[in-house]
Design goal:
alpha+beta, 29% helix, five-stranded parallel beta sheet, 12 helices, globular, 2 domains, disordered C terminus, FAD/NAD(P)-binding domain, 23 strands, 498 residues, binds flavin-adenine dinucleotide, single chain
Length: 498
């Protein structure tokens, strides 16, 4: 039997595995994390801690499949703008079909009812008028919000069903893949235990799916084969996590849960957008070990009195600069440095007045994350802060109160996206039988499209293995319409927005 290595079992890897369970191929799954059933729940949910420790916990870090374990908000709409760029690869109809399949799987495995957030005609009229008057553009989306408290059980249940259907699957948990190298027409995979290395092994595989997420993007660039891929530099988003009273945003929260509102900054014409809204949620640190970002999540059952969401300014760079990730990490590290090692917190009123925040004692909005008060303008470029303030002032026209001086801004909230890799319609790279899926391919930006990319790669390989000996283009293998070109051009990062 032929062999396949699946490196990374996050959102995309899980759905690829769903397709491959029971197929005529031996599948080895590698993930640095522990078995799903043994993954530790958030220590705050366990009652072990009251607030997030800025540095000690990696529960939310991207390397631990963060989005499908944390908040678990799934964009269900096939859009050319939000959730990733699979729309450009496979078209609206195919993408919607896969997103519907992802939704069905999640709903089936949830122990409680997960409502689909679907704006009505009245909601759309309401937002269209207000967004236009505020100088913003609204992008439609339907959503599934599972909540951090439901996420572990849903993922574990999906995986249990896959295991039952897959005698062909072998799991290597707590295992770090250090290297994937080409060996003639096969792939040599080197791996070892993650925490107590010393038993390194190497095995040959006929196929390889790389699904290491954003957390593994840097690792990917260090692989020897990477030089052979057709890539374009990725994009960065630099911004802040905004925390305000839930009463200021309750009307949009009720109607949309998360309204996707885009804005062009006046002077620099940068795209500024909101991202990851968490009505009545919590701000949380995102620990990357050598720097700490901020993020947010919400739960189905436990609620705060605040709403938090990111406001991000998107940036791409042209020659000669080629390392947008380094740029955003450097800004993040400066913000951390000023805060003594963790996130930095400032009232919007103080940022406008050009002074550091010293205390939040009498502030209307009470923070849900303990962070060091300070001055974000010492760490962030003026252009970025200007875009953020302009955005909040416009958003204030839709949700009066949002740009109140009591609004809290946490920094750094940076998203850096991997290089955009050219793939076929079934996520196969220009190296035959090497598939790169999910966020590490840069084609996806969230759980929904990451899972979709896994489905199409898994399906393509299953069919290829079944029909082995028949040579056909990858697009056909994925069951999607053929295009003249086998390989799609790498996405243009400037338009890459979630
Ligand atoms: C805090 C946080 C909250 C988020 N919330 C949401 C949300 O609510 N909704 C949403 O749509 N998106 C959310 N996202 C984004 C979402 O997490 C990603 O878009 C999604 O998980 C991408 O899936 P993936 O399979 O590409 O990567 P991941 O889910 O990150 O999975 C990658 C896997 O690869 C493993 N891995 C990495 N390197 C190696 C290696 N060398 N060897 C072995 N294993 C390796 C990791 O352990 C991990 O399990 C969030 C992200 C963060 C950080």
């Amino acid at each position: 039997m032929q062999k396949l290595a699946l490196v990374g079992l996050g959102a995309s890897g899980l759905f690829a595995l769903k397709e491959l369970a029971g197929a005529q191929i031996e599948v080895h799954v590698f993930d640095v994390g522990p078995a799903y059933a043994k993954r530790y729940p958030c220590p705050i949910d366990q009652g072990k801690l009251e607030i997030c420790p800025p540095k000690a916990c990696s529960y939310c870090a991207p390397g631990q499949s963060a989005g499908s374990w944390n908040d678990f908000k799934v964009i269900l709409t096939a859009s050319s703008v939000i959730g990733g760029r699979l729309y450009d690869l496979m078209g609206e109809r195919e993408l919607q079909r896969r997103l519907d399949a992802v939704k069905e799987t999640i709903i089936t495995h949830a122990k409680v009812e997960i409502p689909v957030v679907k704006p009505s005609q009245d909601d759309l009229q309401w937002i269209k008028k207000r967004a236009t008057l505020a100088g913003m553009t609204y992008h439609y989306q339907e959503l599934l919000h599972c909540g951090s408290d439901n996420a572990p059980a849903i993922n574990t249940s999906i995986l249990d069903q896959i295991v039952d259907a897959g005698p062909n699957l072998t799991f290597h948990w707590n295992t770090l893949v250090s290297c994937v190298a080409r060996s003639d027409d096969k792939f040599a995979v080197k791996y070892d235990r993650y925490r107590f290395p010393g038993e390194g092994k190497e095995e040959l595989f006929d196929y390889c799916i790389i699904s290491v997420g954003r957390g593994g993007a840097n690792w990917l660039t260090q692989q020897e084969f990477y030089k052979e891929l057709d890539v374009q530099p990725g994009q960065v988003d630099i911004g802040v996590r905004v925390e305000t009273s839930c009463y200021f945003t309750e009307e949009v929260d009720r109607r949309f849960y998360e309204p996707k509102l885009y804005f062009r900054s006046r002077r620099h014409n940068d795209v500024v957008r909101n991202f990851c809204s968490n009505p009545r949620g919590f701000v949380t640190p995102e620990n990357h070990r050598d720097y700490v970002l901020v993020n947010g999540h919400s739960k189905m059952f436990e609620k705060s009195d605040n709403n938090n969401f990111a406001v991000l300014v998107s940036k791409t760079f042209t020659r000669p600069f080629k390392d947008p990730q380094l740029y955003s990490q450097t800004i993040a590290k400066v913000a951390n440095m000023l805060a003594g090692g963790g996130p930095l917190l400032q009232r919007l009123g103080d940022l406008r007045a050009g002074r550091r925040t010293k205390t939040l004692q009498n502030n209307l909005v009470k923070p849900t994350l303990e962070a060091e008060c300070g001055d974000i303008s010492l760490a962030y470029p003026h252009r970025i802060l200007e875009g953020i303030i302009e955005y909040l002032d416009s958003f204030n026209k839709i949700c009066p109160g949002v740009s109140d001086e009591s609004t809290l801004l946490y920094a750094p909230e940076c998203k850096s996206y991997p290089d955009a890799i050219a793939v076929s319609k079934s996520m196969e790279t220009t190296i035959p039988n090497l598939f790169i899926i999910g966020d590490s391919s840069s084609w996806t930006r969230g759980v929904g499209q990451a899972a979709t990319s896994g489905l199409i790669a898994g399906e393509a390989i299953k069919i290829r293995v079944r029909d082995s000996g028949n040579v056909f283009p990858s697009g056909a293998a994925a069951g999607v319409e053929q295009s003249v070109e086998t390989f799609c051009a790498a996405p243009q990062p400037d338009a890459a927005i979630t």
